[in-house]
Amino acid sequence: MLIVLTGIDGSGKTTAARALVDSARTNGRKALLLSNHAARRRMSLLSERFGGRLPPRVADFIETGVRLFNVLVNHARAQRFDGLVVMDRHLHCQLALRHASGLQRGWLIPWLLEKLPSPDVHVHFDVDPRLAHQRVTARGTDNESLADLEAFRSAYRSLPEFDDFVVVDANGAPGDVVAQLNRAIAASEPTHHPTTGQITSS
Questions:
Q1: Main-chain phi, psi angles of 61, to 5 degrees
Q2: Distance from CA of residue 178 to its chain's centroid?
Q3: At what angle do helices 129-139 and 146-158 cross, to 10 degrees?
Q4: Helices (H), the chain
Q5: Angle at alpha carbon of residue 148, lines to 67 and 70, rounded to 5°
Q6: CA distance linking residue 79 with residue 18, whole number of Å
Q7: Thymidylate kinase-like domain: from which residue to which, for each copy (predicted)?
C-alpha cells in the first residue's frame, strides 16, 4: 500500500509519517518511510546565513532537480518493497511551490504524475499558516516567513489535483490528527490490509 502525505511546512506531516511507520513496525508489519524532499530547508538556512534569497526560477530549478531525483528513486524502491510505503512529500509540493512563486506548472511534473503509480491514498495536512509558522519557529531548524506559508497553503488549494486529496485538519492536537489519518487510510481500504495498523499517539 502506498500512502502520500503533503502539506505546508509545520503541518505535522513528517511526524505523522514516522508515527504511521513506527506503529506498523511495532505491530510486526513491514513498513517503509521515504522522503521526497527538495533541499528547501538547507537552502533556507543558507539564504539566511548569507542575507539573500535565490531568484525564484533558480530556486525552482534546484528544488525540482532534487525532488525529481528523490521521487523517481523512491518509487523504484517502493515497487520492490512488499509492505506499507509512506512517502513524505511528492511532486505536488513542487507544483504548489511554483504556483506560490508565480511560476508556470510546466509539463514535466504533470506528465510524470500521470506516469508514476498513483498512491492508494493521498492525505493532505491542512493547517492555519499562523500555527504552522509557530511550529516552524519553535523547532528552529529552518526559516519560513508567515507570508510564504500563507502563499504555499493557497497554492496547494488551487492545484487541480487538490480535489483528489483526502484533507485532514492539522490544527488540532496530535492525537486528533492521528485519528483523522487512521480514518483516511481505513476508508481507502475495501478490506483489512495486512500492512497497515492503527497509529497510537503518545
A1: -60, -45
A2: 15
A3: 130
A4: 13-26, 40-50, 56-79, 91-100, 108-115, 129-139, 146-158, 174-188
A5: 5
A6: 20
A7: 84-179
| Beta-bridge mates of residue 166 | 123
| pTM assigned to the model | 0.88
* H, E, C per residue of 10-21: CCCHHHHHHHHH
Q: What SS3 class is residue 107?
A: coil
**pLDDT tens for each residue of the chain, 202 residues long:** 999 999 999 999 999 999 999 988 998 999 999 999 988 776 665 666 666 777 889 889 999 999 999 999 999 999 999 999 999 999 999 999 999 999 999 999 999 999 999 999 999 999 999 999 999 999 877 778 999 999 999 999 999 999 999 999 999 988 788 788 888 888 887 554 444 455 544 3
Domains of the chain, first to last: 2-188 (3.40.50.300)
Which set of grid coordinates corresponds to residue 53? 534569497
* Residues 6 and 125 sit within 8 Å (Cβ to Cβ): yes
